[in-house]
Each structure stands twice: as structure tokens, then as C-alpha cells.
């Protein structure tokens, strides 16, 4: 009896079959209403206007540009990311609401492309944030961009595009790479660990030595001071 | 007319000692001066010859000669001509005078050169970081800075995996171009 008790019993989830239908429906709808964040790095961005406008017309796929990260689904990285830009990209990425997808356009996001030898550009984008899809080319033409985005839609529809969860599950790894580049006191306004708890996405790699380092250096955030320009002088009496 | 101006300019430049003037064309003059004569030259060009526009200051690192070369490009709207004044300064300590009091845009160029080559310009209004605000390595345009060693140390590398491409080609997209088709020299006759 006691030995029998040790046999692990896998509880099969007897979910409501309708629930899965609902999930499928949600994924279907999600993949057909995508907003691309209007933030472009590097030179590959020049292929986006033709992809968006009447010649190739991304909108027929339900993809549109969006100006604010909070309302966007896709972060397009359209080319080389300098280390200075990378900071901003990470800040932007963390502000986006989940689920979010990162698409690396251009060879430069894969391995630095023609800037492989430059001291100023980051080489592997997927060290700093999870990338769903790369569209290689220097630069990829709008056809390639569109076909890449279609592939992303398929992956969202089938539920494969879930790398945003990876950022929460392996936050320590991503944070470690960021710290290596930006210094130990690197900190962003978004509290990823709390978010991970909230989404119930705490994984084995969420916490680790790098997040401990972050806690040591973390300063509480302060509200930005409101002011109008630097040079406004006190009126002379 | 422009012939006249050119002639007049050549005569004017002879007023400075140790100067070497090479006329490249009717609208381009290269001038090599000793470093301490440069402010006088620029003052002369600006005050008496109408070269009021400083287009750029460029810098070259001649590491084998242990010198930096600074090139001041000044343009005249009257004679439509460019004078490039070349000077050499010692690499160590790499200090030179600012020409900010003559040409105010110089502040911008000098700050840039300071950041990229580490040359200090005395009297320049601002020598703080400019574009590389988040950079704390050595000035990256100096020849002794080894960019490749730097990235090997700080960044990791991944191969550009051609398997992806083959996948795409199988689907009817993408093109793998063999080098002999790309390079004309290797083309089969
Ligand atoms: S891959 Fe080519 S086009 Fe794209 S960012 Fe790099 S250099 Fe520019």
C-alpha cells in the first residue's frame, strides 16, 4: 500500500472543453488585431512606410502602427541597436502590456550585421529580451516583412508565440546581460518581479544572483519633477 | 573674377610665417601651418578675406608619427571657396587651443573631437560628454583602441545561421546566392 502511494498520479486536467474553444477564439482575435509600436531603430525602418501604406498595405492583415507602448502588441526592432538605444528599447519593452511580441528585423539584430565590430552596438538582441521572430536581411524588403508578420500571426493563432512569458520566467538571465552592459546599478521603472508574481509566471530563473544585485542597488522611484525647460529665469523685480 | 580673388588670397596667406599653401583648384586651398600660427591664420581669413563659416573641424590620428592632425575647414560665401587649414599637434598630452572666440560653432566640433579622440581644447565652453553619454571606455576613435578586442570582452556573438535561410528557400522565399554568382570576377565565362 505504502509503495503504491508513492506512484505519482498525474491528475489530468479535465477542463471545460468550451474553455479551450474560448482560448482559441481569443488567440484568433488577438492575431488579427495587432498594433505595432511606432519605435524604430537603425536603417531597416525605411522599409516600413511602404509596408504600411498602400503599396503593400499591412492594414489588410489587421496590423497598424500605434504610438504608445502601453497600447501596442508588437515591438519591431528595425535594425542595429546601439547600446544607448538598447536601454530605451528595454524600458519600452517593459512598459508594454502583455502579451507582447518582439520582432527583430534586419541582420543587425541577429548578430550585429555589418556593425559586428562596432563598440557601440549590441550584437544579440535575444540576450536582452525574448525575440519571437527574426526577419533577416540587410534590409528585408516589405514582402519579407509582411510574410514575417504573417508567420507571427500564425504563431499567435497556434499559441506558440509566448516568448513574453520567458522574460518573466527567466528574468535573471536577461537582467544579468543587461547589467553586464549597463553596469550593476541598472534599474528600470518597471518592477518585473512583482509583475511576474501577478501573472503567476514566476519560474526557476526569475530570481537569482542578478536580481539580488538589483535589490541591493534599487532606489525607490520618485515622481518626475514638473518643470518647464531649464532656462526659465526668475522674473527680475 | 575668381582668378583675381584666388591670387589675392594667395598673397594674403604669404603674410604668415612657416605656411605652406597648396592650391587644389580655384575654389579649394590646402594650407599647412604650425600649430601656434593657426589662430592668427583663422583671424586673418575671417577678418580680411570673408571666410566666416567654419564648416567642420576634423581630426586624424597619426599614431605612427605620435601626432594628431586637426583640419579646420572654413568657407567664404563671397568667393565661394574653401580653405582647409591643417595643423599637427603632439599626441601627448593632446592639448590645443579652442577657436571658440573666433568661430562659435567650434564648440560643437571641439566637444565631439574631445569625446572621440580625447583631445582637450583649452577655452572651449563645454568639454563634457556629447553623444557617447553612456560610454566610459577610452575615446573610441583613437587608433590604439581595439574595437574588436572590446566587443570580444563585452558582447557575445552568434553565427548567422544559414539553416534558417535554407528553410526559407524550401518554402520558395529567400535567395541563397553563391559567391561566384555575386562576384563578377568569379563568373564562369
Ligand atoms: S541589417 Fe543592414 S539595413 Fe538593417 S540595420 Fe543593419 S545595416 Fe541597416
Automatic annotation (TrEMBL), chain A:
<dbReference type="GO" id="GO:0045271">
    <property type="term" value="C:respiratory chain complex I"/>
</dbReference>
<dbReference type="InterPro" id="IPR006137">
    <property type="entry name" value="NADH_UbQ_OxRdtase-like_20kDa"/>
</dbReference>
<keyword id="KW-0560">Oxidoreductase</keyword>
<keyword id="KW-1278">Translocase</keyword>
<dbReference type="Pfam" id="PF01058">
    <property type="entry name" value="Oxidored_q6"/>
</dbReference>
<dbReference type="GO" id="GO:0048038">
    <property type="term" value="F:quinone binding"/>
</dbReference>
<dbReference type="GO" id="GO:0016491">
    <property type="term" value="F:oxidoreductase activity"/>
</dbReference>
<keyword id="KW-0874">Quinone</keyword>
<dbReference type="GO" id="GO:0015990">
    <property type="term" value="P:electron transport coupled proton transport"/>
</dbReference>
<keyword id="KW-0830">Ubiquinone</keyword>
<dbReference type="GO" id="GO:0009060">
    <property type="term" value="P:aerobic respiration"/>
</dbReference>
<dbReference type="GO" id="GO:0051536">
    <property type="term" value="F:iron-sulfur cluster binding"/>
</dbReference>
<dbReference type="GO" id="GO:0008137">
    <property type="term" value="F:NADH dehydrogenase (ubiquinone) activity"/>
</dbReference>
<protein>
    <submittedName>
        <fullName>NADH-quinone oxidoreductase subunit NuoB</fullName>
        <ecNumber>1.6.5.11</ecNumber>
    </submittedName>
</protein>
